[in-house]
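This section describes the prediction task in plain terms. A model, or a person checking by hand, is given the sequence of a single protein chain and must write out its three-dimensional structure as a string of tokens. No templates, partner chains or ligands are provided. The sample shown here is typical of the held-out split.
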Amino acid sequence: MCDSLEEKFGAWELFEELWQKEMTDDTVNMLDKLDTFIKDSPFHDQLNLHADVKDNVKARILRTRGNAFFHPKVKRYIEALKCYNESIAFSEKGTEDRAIAYANRSMICYEMHRYEECLENIRLARGSNYPERLASKLVKREEDAKKALLAAVNNQPAVKGSKEVKPHGDEVKLSYNALETVPQVAACLELAESDKFGRYVVTNRNLNAGDVVIIERPFCRLLRDVYRCIRCDFCLKESLFTLIPCESCTVTMYCTIECMDKAYKQYHRIECPIIRDMWRIFTKLPVLSLRVVTTAINSFDYNLQAMREHLAELNEKKVNAFTMDWTKATPRDIYNTVHVLETNANVRYSKDRMVRVFFTTIIRKLLVERTDLGKNCGLDFVLSELLDNLLLRHLQTSPVNMHSLHYMEYLPAQQLYEIENHASACFPLLSMLNHSCAPNVTRVTLFDGRCAVIVNRPIPKGGQLYDNYGMHHSVMCRKERKYALAKQYRFTCQCEACINDYPLYPDLPSIDTAQHGMIDTDAIHAELVLHNEEQAKELLPKLRRYLNDIGHQYPGKEICSCQELFLRSFQILHNPTSESAQYWKYCNP
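The expected answer:
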């Protein structure tokens, strides 16, 4: 994990302090007090807000910490790499501090038999003015790496290196023909609307367990802060051995110059001067809200006046992600589908609304003070108001509509893989799926960054598709689920599990297996935790058939178990996987 950006006193704590002093039910009065506070209070000092600058002293401290992890008696290579990466991010371009961090990274690559990356780091070190007094070490390592690489190529199998990771199964495709104008969605799905459900998705045909009905690419993504020294900020690829830094901030790192350039164009151009303070004083959701806004502004080529005019003319009620022609959609058209996502503004209580206004004001101040937006918004009230409205809107849409992205992380202590969340993303089509504590579909992050929606029990013609927002009846009691859903999503759940008070997994009834037989779920689970691709490929169709045979008896212990086993098999074949198992081998020979 990278050095934490979190501090004990952040924007939420500052708001709480203000709220306790000025608590009132008068929204207008509270807004005035917030505005006065932002104008007159030394909130910059209270939040320790400051420009992000390179710091060679900090870089040296991090490099020294990495050296301690690299020591032959310690050999915690992964922790050492993270320290060296953060040292590279803090160091100034062309300095000895950066050059030595690259060289130190090449040492670990060599020790872990990653000779191609070793040579790349040596090239980077020299390109950053590696000191002449240490040059002989680098020359010797370069010669050894080239010899080892040649020997490995000649002897086969080829040396381990940074090869593109590919899925183990066949490419994931929709199970039915796609909508002609919405190729991400199976043609059997339709978007409906009612007072009870709002917008929701139904099927016009019977669906079977295992059917893939949506495969969507996100509008934008946000890498979690703890992965900033491990993964590329743009493509999210795990690039622990070869990350390169943004030259203007100490936070973002990339796998290639190409990713760096794309990130700068799409969002980092605005975020760069404030992203360290954003991560330091806020939790993930406000940072994700900023990413939605910066990506949206890019959709309008950074022309805020054009964006204001477009949104002023937009008829939000007519925006329908399922009827829009995605094959001809412009970036602005796609943002329309994000712009109209549910905010739940009308059901938020006073304090909830005020804290979002407070966050909006701080973020807008940071943007105006430090970024190019200040030239447009600083003296233009209309454009400043637009920026406020965008930030506030997406501070409300993000907690309700955004989804987590996952990969399979290797846990060396248990010698198995478990699902981990490494990023969050905005999916306008997936956001149309309503929640159920007893869902009939599930989401899987694919290798290329898209998200697939897979049916996990039969759905009859006319039935609604239900996702799960993290509160499942088999692991959370009804009272806990209702409280959590009401707190974050602002609705009282009335799904089948809540109405019928389905029990937790240990108390679920067993299904009648006389007709369909039963499977040994414990034995299958023991096989799948080993992450064997061939076993997963063999088990997947069997589990699918069994789910379709017994799914009508839901809820049942065997059905819930089979759903989890089916999902695990699918993840093994199609979910990104970390290289940690390979790392562990070299750290523990």
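For orientation: The first strand starts at residue 189 and ends at 194.
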